Amino acid sequence: MSYVITDACTKDLECVKVCPVDCIHPKDDEPEFAGAAQLYIDPEACIDCGACVPVCPAAAIHPSDELPDDKASFAKLNADWFAGRG
Ligand code: SF4
Ligand code: SF4
Predict the structure, then answer these.
(1) Does residue 48 have its Cβ closer than 6 Å to ligand 2?
(2) Would you say residue 86 has pLDDT above 90?
(3) Fold of 3-82
(4) What is the DSSP string of 32-61?
(5) pLDDT, tens digit (0-9, with 9 covering 90-100), for 17-66
(6) Domain map of the chain by residue range?
């Protein structure tokens, strides 16, 4: 399990500030930030602490096993963003 960001994300970076393991990307000092539709959580690095959920003003972050049905595809989208980057 990990947490997953959906398309409600506004890229305001609030979650990045509280994540203890720095697993939310791209950040605004990374070249992919400008073109990214949203931010993503690395499912292999996320420790499931949940700290990012209450700070998100867009309610864009969900545990992967509690994603709304119409957001189910975002688990793979988050994972795919990190594929090959490690
Ligand atoms: S706090 Fe929410 S809206 Fe802001 S960057 Fe994180 S997921 Fe996106
Ligand atoms: S659940 Fe915790 S470790 Fe995972 S992305 Fe959110 S703040 Fe980071």
Answers:
(1) yes
(2) no
(3) Alpha-Beta Plaits (3.30.70)
(4) TTTT-SS-EE-TTT-----THHHH-TT--E
(5) 999 999 999 999 999 999 999 999 999 999 999 999 999 999 999 999 99
(6) 3-82
